[in-house]
Amino acid sequence: MEIKWIEDFIALAQYQSFSRAAEFRNVTQSGFSRRIQSLEQWVGAELIDRSSFPPVLTPAGRLFREVAEDLLQKLFDTRAVIRTEQRIGGKSLQIAAGHTISLNFLPSWLKTLATHFGDVRARVIPTNVHDSILMLVNGNCELMFAYHHPELPLHLDPVRYEHLTVGIDTFMPASKPNARSAPLYRLPGTAKQPLPLISYTETSYFGRCLALLLGRAGTAAALQLHYESDMAEVLKKLVIEGEGVAWLPKSAIKDELANGSLVPAGPGSWNLEVELRVYRDVSNRSEFLDTLWQHLRTSG
């Protein structure tokens, strides 16, 4: 039995929808259903009444939910205590952020922070969006940085979790240039010669951004999947090597665009603007965190 199965089950009990719970858990609906089934096999009873709409808990499911929620809370509370004891002292921040944000935004942001607050000790934990949210919800970080698009919202209670916009990024197609400095792979491609696509896994946040962008594009792109990864830095290296076209955050390729080693693979109509947000749990009343948040609010 895995903890993530219990978290899946609790999400399903809350949302009463396999599709919404799967989206919240950042997993495909088929994968989510398999994990619920695995949990039921481990328990030895059906936990979900699938004959009703919306799906509801069976008597066994209601009993298991009571125990599961209490068990998870105790586990996470204990983990939070242990991690708090391991944190650095003084003016310190534990930050959860996506890998791209950790590499391309946070270094300069932390440097700017030091000019206002002096020596701030920060521990940055690069992770995916789902795990970042769990860190924030479970009290294992003071700040969480994540991308946001209105059509791809993060499922966080706005009353408990405040956010501020700290930047705007552009999700754009990039290609290695040819000898004439034009894109080696130019959108939209053709049916006879589809462009090799270097893409993200469909459950990653950038994967969902790409699906949204392509789904509403005025012209259908002719693309053939070539490589796939969750990390934009991996995609970037493959594009530089000339392996295909990939959509990348502009912040991650600004130097390459400036020196000409990468060029836009199409006009701005193929771009998607996303916000960069920072989140905090309002129940965390750290004096330094309150002061920092007020500074971010006024300087933004």
Automatic annotation (TrEMBL):
GO molecular function: DNA-binding transcription factor activity; transcription cis-regulatory region binding
Keywords for this protein: DNA-binding, Transcription, Transcription regulation
Keyword presence, Cell cycle: no
HTH lysR-type domain mapped to chain residues: 1-58
Family: Belongs to the LysR transcriptional regulatory family.
PANTHER family on file: HTH-TYPE TRANSCRIPTIONAL REGULATOR, HTH-TYPE TRANSCRIPTIONAL REGULATOR YJIE
Protein name: LysR family transcriptional regulator
Organism, scientific name: Trinickia soli
